[in-house]
């Protein structure tokens, strides 16, 4: 088999490349000329250079390809370039879908997010849930939802596309929680916000496995939630604390966190700086709770991930 991975140099994309190559799959990677290729190391990947909206580059990358894995995305909360995020997440996905349809790929797997469901207000939901949140919590939330609408429309029109919807993605080179964890195990993280915030967890390698299984077994037009389980932030630190002996960070009072978010947001926008806390991040910590059930992926794809606690312990 020959597969294309968009965003092959990214966190999810690079782990997917590794998993595909373990199955002796020939891998083509679409990357930008400015991309940092460190995560790919010395892997034997045919690289095609081009922007995710560059249809000529996409057509070249899909030449002779059986399966396309679309992982490229602009992922960020807080101070973001909203027009650029829409260009990458929405228009980039549109370009991938149109070219895949034109060249006739056998299967396309789209890496979506559980965020498309919006705030479930703590309700545990599955793929049958219909979004009730009318507005959007972030530009990322909005653009990924819009991209998913495009994917579903192309599926209805006959494109063989399957969507995987991961929860929080963790791994040793995780660009989001990884740096926090590094500071914690070194004893440098003394305070934290939102200890009661519930986070769905999936190991990046288990996500890669799920994407491959979705290509093999997924129903056309199907959605598959990919999550190994959920933990509160406090529980995450307690698990790691028990293993390392490092004390759990103290909880910062909620009013103080909200004040910091309100103060730092305009400063971040003015200086084009990503503050450690912002109004958007505060909203995600305290006011938005998405809880998901991944039974469908376990049953239909025969997906068996490591547990949430095993994932955390592996990181240290």
TrEMBL record:
Domain (NAD-dependent epimerase/dehydratase): residue spans on this chain: 3-226
UniProt cross-references to Pfam families, sorted A to Z: Epimerase
GO molecular function (one): aldehyde dehydrogenase (NAD+) activity
Matching SUPFAM superfamilies: NAD(P)-binding Rossmann-fold domains
GO CC annotation terms, alphabetical: cytoplasm
Transmembrane stretches, start-end: none
Protein name: NAD-dependent epimerase/dehydratase family protein
Organism: Dendronalium phyllosphericum CENA369
